[in-house]
Amino acid sequence: MPVHQKQSKSSELLFLGIQVMETNIVLQENGQPETLTFVSTVPLTCETEKCKLDMVLTVKYPKGNTLSNVLLSRCILEFRPNDRCQGIGCITQQVKVAMTPNLYTLNVKDIHISGYLYVDEQVMWNQDTVQAKIKVIDLPSASCYMTAGVFILSFQNNMSKLSRRGTYILLKSRNNEFEIQIRVTSCPDENLLCVCGAAIYYKETRLIIDRCRSTNKEGDIFIQYRPAMRANMKIFEGRHGKLIYIVLDNKAQVRIDLRHQSMTLTVQSSGYFTDRMDGLCGQIGNNTWYHSNDVQTSQPLVDWRLLPGLSLFENYELLLMTLTPSDARM
Question: Can you give the pTM of this predicted structure?
């Protein structure tokens, strides 16, 4: 009888050890954290249940320099014995990786996350490292300027001029995390408008700098904040009370220059707020503006003027601090 030989068939290659499942991870400054999944394709076996395999994670540039603005949810992963394997995975550990906001433009395009393996003496494991490559997109920061007049140079370098008194939204993040409002009035002894107050809201902390209520010529500065200052908002004072500098984590910085009874503002925003910001300062990363009857500009704007009683300036408690620019210190 003829003998029927079965044709041989090659199986797919199987990696033995720990590997990263994700291959195309992209981190963006205004994006969400990503997940790295480390899977062992073989079980970890040893004589006692107390043995383990530790993986220590580090984040580095391709050239080996440490990158400080990429964070991991944890730096050590533990792999414990497991004799049950499903599919290609026997032991699985995950870690979140995110890019922190920054006010600088980094030239980094790719980073390496290295996992160094440390095993007990009773564990036989030849693999010593696991490598993962991640693409990093660092978005440029942007600045908005508001000067006497009241002129506004937006994040997109569009110039506009306010022509009506009132309270306006200078900028506001779409997730309601960050907002700056300004109060516009007639300048004393000058035939133009000026800004006499600024209200800053950031992560449930409200800071109000008010010169609109001053009754003397020098213009006292009334400052109120609620609740108590937190680590995410820091205030610095300079030039004998005529400069106030506010740092909001690494996401934004606000500079307020005080002159007579008015003030000018400069806002520097990180790439974190790209496509997340609206207001008189416009959007970061988008040229779309809308119409307003209160703004004289060749570029149309949204009507960002607030109705009375709806601003951050309303209904705040007794003022906590008064500055006289000549000799006061914060």
Answer: 0.76
**Helix residue ranges, H only, the chain:** none
**Distance separating alpha carbons of residues 324 and 214, to the nearest angstrom:** 10
Q: Please write the tens of the pLDDT for every residue from 187-242.
A: 876 678 889 899 999 988 888 888 887 665 555 666 766 655 566 888 888 887 78
What lies within 8 Å, CB to CB, of 50 at 6+ separation is none
CA distances (Å), origin 100, targets 85, 92, 139, 144, 214: 36, 26, 11, 22, 40
DSSP secondary-structure letter at 66?
B
Q: Which two tokens stand for residue 218?
A: 């020098």
Q: Give dist(CA 142, CA 29) in Å, integer.
A: 13
Reduced to 3 states (helix: H, G, I; strand: E, B; else coil), residue 114 is strand
Q: Are strands 178-186 and 91-99 parallel, antiparallel or unpaired?
A: unpaired
Would you tell me how many other CB atoms lie within 10 Å of the CB of residue 7?
4
Q: What is the pLDDT of residues 103-134, one digit of tens each?
A: 877 776 788 899 998 877 666 777 889 999 88
> Does residue 38 contact residue 19 with C-beta atoms inside 8 Å?
yes
- Helix, strand, coil percent content, the chain, rounded in steps of 5: 0, 45, 55
CA angle, residues 285, 149, 224, in degrees to nearest 5: 80
* Best CA proximity match to 29, nearest among 117, 104, 89: 104
Backbone phi and psi for residue 56, each to the nearest 5 degrees, phi listed first: -100, 120
Whether residue 309 has pLDDT greater than 70:
yes
Strands 221-226 and 295-296: unpaired
Distance CA 150, CA 161 (A): 6
Q: How far apart (Å, rounded) are the C-alpha atoms in residues 293 and 223?
A: 31
**Per-residue H/E/C for 128-151:** CEEEEEEEEECCCCEEEEEECECE
